[in-house]
Amino acid sequence: MIATTNRHASQREIVPATKSLARVSSIGARSFLLEAPGDFDLVAQRRIWALSQTVKDWADLAENIPGMTNLLVIFKETPEDPDAVVSRLLEAWENARSIDLKGKTIEIPVHYGGEYATDLPALCDLSGLSDREVVRIHHEATYRVFALGSAPGFGYLHGLDPRIYMP
């Protein structure tokens, strides 16, 4: 059983009526977005990567784009039965097992202070940390690229220490 809620003409949310473990929304006529439940974390992202690997071989799929704990799938043609697509995606999600993608470490030079630190005083005020503590915490961390952005070279990163998070 599928419950459907119209949000506006080009997007409708389609969720399972009995379980809301993952949420699927239609984005236009040929695209669907599966959003992982729970927190923004590596566990959910690893399942998204696994789901992306699973659906890439679907013959009717034009493209799949992993995002931040979500996956956008774009079909070659408008599906005749959107509810069947939702069921297929949710089943694939339920069967997805965590994977870890091989990558490489890239060191990015960072300049702390001066004209590059316009938000550092606000961060220090919010966190209660000194500027040296903020720099140390930020510098010691290793960040993982969860997804690529729409601009070349832009990566969405995970791994920021909560002590230096800015809303």
Walkthrough of the structure:
The protein is of the alpha+beta class and 167 residues long. It has two domains: 2-95, Gyrase A, domain 2, CATH 3.30.1360; 114-164, no CATH class. Helix content is 28%, strand content 26%. The protein has four helices and eight strands, in the order ββββαββαααββ. Strands 1-2-3-4-6-5 form a six-stranded antiparallel beta sheet, covered by helices on one side. β5 and β6 form a beta hairpin. α1 (42-55) crosses α2. The longest helix has 14 residues, at 42-55. The two termini are 38 Å apart. Mean pLDDT is 84; it is low at 1-20.
What can be said about this structure in brief?
By secondary structure, the protein is α+β, with helices and mostly antiparallel strands.
Along the chain, the helix and strand elements come as EEEEHEEHHHEE
Fraction of residues in helices? Answer: 25-40%
Reported by name, the CATH topology of the largest domain is: Gyrase A, domain 2
User: How far is the first residue's CA from the last residue's CA?
Assistant: 38 Å
Strand content: 25-35%
Descriptive keywords:
167 residues, alpha+beta, Gyrase A, domain 2, six-stranded antiparallel beta sheet, two-stranded antiparallel ribbon, 4 helices, 28% helix, 26% strand, elongated, disordered N terminus
Give the SSE map:
Blueprint (H helix, E strand, L loop, with lengths): L1 E7 L2 E6 L6 E5 L3 E5 L6 H14 L5 E6 L3 E6 L6 H14 L24 H8 L3 H10 L3 E5 L6 E4 L9
Antiparallel strand pairs: 1-2, 2-3, 3-4, 4-6, 5-6, 7-8
